[in-house]
Amino acid sequence: MPHIPQAVPAAGASTPPDAPAAPLLSVVVPVRNEAPNIAPLVAEIEAALPGVPHEIVYVDDGSSDDTPMALRKAAAAAPLRHLRHRASCGQSAAVVTGVKAARGRWIATLDGDGQNDPADIPKLLARAQAEGGAILVAGHRVTRRDSWVKRRSSRVANRVRARLLGDATPDTGCGLKVFPRALFLELPHFDHMHRFLPALVLRQGGRVVSEPVNHRPRLRGQSNYGTLDRLLVSLFDLVGMVWLQRRWRRPEVEPEG
């Protein structure tokens, strides 16, 4: 299992001794070179959660642009904490860092490029609370706002993945998901694990449900992923995930007596 480096707390990221009680929800947002998207997305998250005790946890995965400065400015006006990786370790490592630092019982993950709509978070959270237990509520981008090549490659990848892993999830690539923090911490952590959360949750004995969510075109900045390199990495990781599933048999523990 790859080692995931520790994050370096950014300015303002420490929690004071007289900090308020833990929030119900922590919104974890991994980012790399997304400076123009920080302020608009934080404002949308705040607008979406006016009645929900929450915090926002950004993890800057070694950005080389003005993302650190944008996060410091956003933290002055919102319940935002931010951490930074000294060097880029990948989106999964950033998600792991964010969930470990989060204080909420429930976690909502959100891509930092603005394509996920924060207005969908309350719906996913309500579904998760209603289901209860070890549950993952995965967003399903019914109408994708990406290029034809991305849509087509994702459709093929989803079909192959579903056939091999049996995760019964139409859209594992959607960054918008809600789950209990405790459940995530029990999962194996490895590079690109965020692409396989439904299969990992099922492997752990949990349940997975999908909810339709809004998807938007990218308005600012540039994607950190290419279509071909993402497809090749996904295929390689899929082989590893099949191996991981076959190497674990979940025990059924009987009570004493």
From TrEMBL:
Protein name from the UniProt record: Glycosyltransferase family 2 protein
One Pfam family hit: Glycos_transf_2
Keywords: Cell membrane, Glycosyltransferase, Lipopolysaccharide biosynthesis, Membrane, Transferase, Transmembrane, Transmembrane helix
Cited SUPFAM superfamilies: Nucleotide-diphospho-sugar transferases (SSF53448)
GO biological process: lipopolysaccharide biosynthetic process
Upper classification of the organism: Bacteria, Pseudomonadati, Pseudomonadota, Alphaproteobacteria, Acetobacterales
GO cellular component: plasma membrane
Gene3D superfamilies according to UniProt: Spore Coat Polysaccharide Biosynthesis Protein SpsA, Chain A
Keyword field contains Kinase: no
Residue span, Glycosyltransferase 2-like domain: 26-184
Highest taxon of source: Bacteria
MF GO annotations: undecaprenyl-phosphate 4-deoxy-4-formamido-L-arabinose transferase activity
Organism: Siccirubricoccus deserti
